[in-house]
Design a protein that fits this description.
By secondary structure, the chain is α+β, with helices and mostly antiparallel strands. It has 3 domains: 4-180, Alpha Horseshoe (Serine Threonine Protein Phosphatase 5, Tetratricopeptide repeat); 221-307; 324-505, Nucleotide cyclase, GGDEF domain (Alpha-Beta Plaits), CATH 3.30.70. Helices cover 70% and strands 13% of the residues. The chain has helices at residues 4-23, 28-35, 40-56, 60-78, 80-98, 105-121, 128-141, 144-158, 163-201, 204-307, 310-319, 340-346, 349-370, 395-419, 453-463, 474-480, and strands spanning 325-337, 373-378, 381-386, 427-441, 447-451, 470-473, 486-494, 497-505. Strands 1, 2, 3, 4, 5, 6, 7 and 8 form an 8-stranded mixed sheet that branches. Helix 5 packs antiparallel against helix 6 (105-121). The longest helix has 104 residues, at 204-307. The N and C termini lie far apart (126 Å). Mean pLDDT is 82; it is low at 1-22.
Amino acid sequence: MTTPKHFLTAICLLFSSWLLAQTSSGNPQDDIRALKGLPTAEYLQTAVNYAVAYSIEEDWFAVDKLMAAALFKARRSGGRSTAATVHMTYANELINCCIDTNSDWTNYERALTSLGKAHNLDRNKVLTEDIKDYIRRINAVAEAPKVFTAISMLAEKIDPSGQFYSELKGSTMAAVAQQDLAMQSAELRSAVQAQEQEIQNLSLQAARERAMAEYHRKVADSLHFVGMIDSLKTIQQEQELMEQAATIELQESELELQQARTKNLMVIIFSALLGLGLVTIFYLRSRQLNRRLAEEKERSEELLLNILPKDVAEELKTTGQVEPKFYEVGTVLFTDFVGFSHIAQNLSSERLIKDLDECFQIFDELAGEYGIEKIKTIGDAYMCISGVPTPDASAVQNIIRFALDLQHRLADWNAKRAESGLPLFQARIGIHTGPVVAGVVGIKKFSYDVWGDTVNVAARMEKKGAAGKVNVSAATYELVQDHFQFEARGEVEVKNMAPMQMYFVEN
């Protein structure tokens, strides 16, 4: 018996044969040569038509040749997007030709392959929705159990989120359920028809006897079923009573066990809290003591570094004493304020100490900037040294720059004092370079000091200097004469010493 589906299949095959006969030569190479010279759009459409016709004939060699020619032409003319459109057109035409026929799975496979290639070429994903529609069409008409694996792989590739896959899966499940329902309905109709035929064949009396026997059988089955139900209810009630008794016994045991656990847990918690409290108290007291010890140690080290140089302080902490050291080169600086006795007479003692402290704070700040080691203050005099205890090739230059900067800072400070009518603190500065001995004296109130003739000569340089000037000896001048400008003063008489060459450092 010929069905409509078989008839449509025959029509499609006849159409493809007619299309090949009318439009193609039957040889893909000749068809490709015939396409040359056609406009691009007509070339691509004709090549796709040939490929669809050969697909129906299942001449896959010819299909591959024509699709390769069409894709090559598409890439040259419009790039990836045009090639993707060629794949989409081929898939659409193939689906349209086979959608109403029981076509071989190979044609659906070819259509899905072209849709996958179109998706790969579609970088901007403008064809995604069209591709999904084509897949839905195939999923709707093809036999779901056979095609779903291939369709689901392409669906997951197109939409990694899984939503499209779920949509197709639901559609497939509905199709399977519908197919099963149709089969069951057909079987039921056949059974009904057979039953009707059998009833027609029976005589009225036989039908009555058969109906009565069926009635008695059903009554007997019902009585037996009722008896079974009653027995089952009795057994079920007994089982429920046993289970309730077991449950009560188990609950009582669990309650006793829980009470014992609670008691033990309370003991453990109390002991843990007590131990934790003791540990916390000990930890807090230890931490407080350690913090106080650290603060006291830091304060002691700060005080020690305010009295002694860092290297000397480390030696004192390590060995408990400081050995005197001889240094071949050390540059000693003395400052003194001109007319300090007169200034002291015109200021209160509080104001005098305040102003003197302000000056020496400037000296200390600059000494730290230039790496100068402060030795001590004696009244209004300030003594420091460079290159000791840490030798430095730039020690002499540093202390001269320190002296010049110090005079600049004093000049600025005195300018403000002059505006307020206060007396001026004008300093004489003397510098000399030579060998010294440095060390710590005393066992109480440690004091780092330097000794030697160099110290005495530096003091004479300060005494023979002038207000606002930096006076240096010949020894110092020889070491830095190429770095600063000097004013030669010639030989100057020095108390208890032979006349000495002296130089003012030009500002």
